[in-house]
Each structure stands twice: as C-alpha cells, then as structure tokens.
Write the structure tokens for this entry.
Amino acid sequence: MSATTLDYSQLYSDGQPDPAPRWAPFPKYYFVGGNNDPEQIPIEGLIEAAGSVLRREGSKLAIYNLGLGPQGYPGLRQFVADKARRHRGIDVPIDDVTILSGSGQGIDMISKLLVNPGDTVLVEEFCYQGAMNRFRKIGAKLEGMKLDADGIVIDALAEQLATLKARGVTPKFIYTIPTIQNPTASILPLDRRHALIALAREYNVAIFEDECYADLLWEGIEAPPALYALDPGCVIHLGSFSKSLAPALRLGYLISGWENMRRLLPLKGDSGTGALDQMIVAEYFSKHFDKHMGHLNGVLHDKLKTMVEAVEREFGSAAECWAPKGGIFLWIKLPAEVDVRTLIKPAADAGIQFNAGPDWAVSPANSSSHLRLCFAMPSKEVIREGVAAFAKVCFEQTGIPKHSGNVRHAG
C-alpha cells in the first residue's frame, strides 16, 4: 500500500514530543551521554554466567516475571540488598527491593506517585537532565538548590524552605544525587546528610535519593552511608546497573518500605523487566562485583586524569574543572563571556559533541558558560585529540582560550 493512503498528521494526538531524527553514527569526538568503556564489559564472564543460570533456571522464562511476582528476579534483588548493606549501609529485606527497566523507569514511577501538576520539586541547581525533564513533563515546578564543591549547601536550603513555607508552598520532594552527583561528581558529607534529613522531617518533604553513580568511586575515596540508611522513613532510594556494568542492559532498582512500594508497583506499567538480563547480572555480580568495580574504577580514574590534563593544557586558566570523586563526567566552567550554546553547531561540524551546561541546570542563566564532558567511552588518544579540537573551536568562535596549544601552534 502507498505510504500516503492516510494523512496521519490529522490523526496524531495533542502534546506529542518533537519527531525523532534518523539515528546517525557517533561523531569522532563523542563526549556526551552515560556510556561506559566498551573494553571493560566482562564479556567472557557474562557468557559463563548466562550459560550457568540458563541451565539451572532457564525453564522459568516460559512464565511472565518468571512466575515470581512483579518485583523482579529474587537472585538479583538479594544481590542488591547485599550490596546496599555492604557498600551503602542500607539494611533491608528483598521485599523492599524492586528491579526496574532502567533507573529512568523509577524516576517516572516516583514522580507519578508524588507529584500533581503545579507541585514544587527541589532539585540541585546543576542536575541530571533526564530527571528534570520527567519532573517538568508531569507538571512540576522546579526550584534549584545551591551547590558547592561538597554538594547541597544546607544553610541556603534551610532559608529556601522557610521562604517557600512563608509563601504557602510545601515541596513534594527533594531530588538529590548525594554520592557522585551528576554532573559535578561531588559527595555530600555525613554532617550535611544528617542536616538534610532533619530539614526533610521539619518540613515534611520526602527525599528522592538517586545513587546511580555511587559504585564509581576512586581508590581511597569513601562515601558516607546512603541517606536511606540514615532514615528509611523519609527517603526513597534509586540505583542502577547502567554505570557499574552496561547501560544497554536497562536495569535499575528501587529500595523503599512496603507502604510506598505497594503503591509504586502498579505504576511500573510493563509486563516485567527483562528476566534474562536480571538472571545473568545476578549470576555474574554475585561472584565478581568487587573485583569488577575495582578494575573499572581504576580505568575510569586514569581516563579522568587524561581529560583533566588535556583541558589544563589546551584551556589553561580559562577553564575551571570541578574535581570529580568518581563517576564518568567532568563538569567545566569557562569564562562568563563564553555561552557554550553558541559552540554546539561549530563543534558538531568539527566532529565534537558535548553537553551544554544549560541542559543540566535548573536555570540557564547561571550555567551558560558550563559544559559536561564524558570521559568513559572514548580512548585516551581520542580524549586528548577531542579536547584539543574543542579548544580550537572555542578559540575560533570566542577568542578563548588565548594561550591554548592550538593558539601556540597556529602562530
């Protein structure tokens, strides 16, 4: 049949997002997204784990949810509970753990549970774009919380909550990434965690804790217990396997008490997260998690050092880098006169993609000179070449940096 038999433009429902472009290959210097290092996927280990668990439990794939209920494969839930206890100080039964089809599904579920259109949600002033987009889509009003090198500034938050209360506004929740914040990669200190919980109790505001990067810590760096560990009664906890193992697996998890969990489960909206993926990850990580993470974090830290050295060499004092304590991103501030949004197209023309700061901030006004670079997927050679190419684009468009390697060579 002809593709023009119907005029579908007359049939589409209102409020649709913009149409998607056709997928194009990654450019040469691809510094966006939460991808990881392809060479660090433990392929042989996953093959062995798949064979082992399929031989043992493969027949259960004939039944939705393996015939074991909507919260996910018990072996993976048990692993999450064990990992949360050992690494994050969280002590919960597996009934308080639900496996998700990626952490984004958990953000959607929690938003639907707590937010009505017009409600206020507090987020860090520099924040995960995907979460902000989901909150706005459901009709939330976002208020940014001030950050410094250690995360949320508690005194500023206390004043902010008092001001909102005086206006008759009680936020529905505080969304925070306290351990390897995205995009700044800071870690909220223990005293601030206790103070944050005290404020949440005082104002009856829930805390939505996103710890998708908490497994990615540099050697010698220790994070305080999760907020959930300090007060399960006012926190819902979100985690992911996208950064510790592989984004394409689409596996995340929620930790919450049963009163909230029983209300969250009907909002999951699918016929179950992919069971085979859950089974393989449980089989592999139950035996190799600590060794895998130790190796991966060493590789990522080494790549970060390469990127920081490249930024310092090419941009000099024109670039201020936040000091990541883990993760896969470097958050950079250029001089105030540089609006990074003007660099997006010329950078793309040069084969460079980066995350512009305003997309990762509540207010574009205080982030127009910021950008985020992902160092996990590209090789060290590509990192060096890409940062040099980006500095060249920046100089050609803005005259900054004035003393980069590119400028010296050009003379």
Summary: Confidence is low (pLDDT under 50) at residues 407-411.
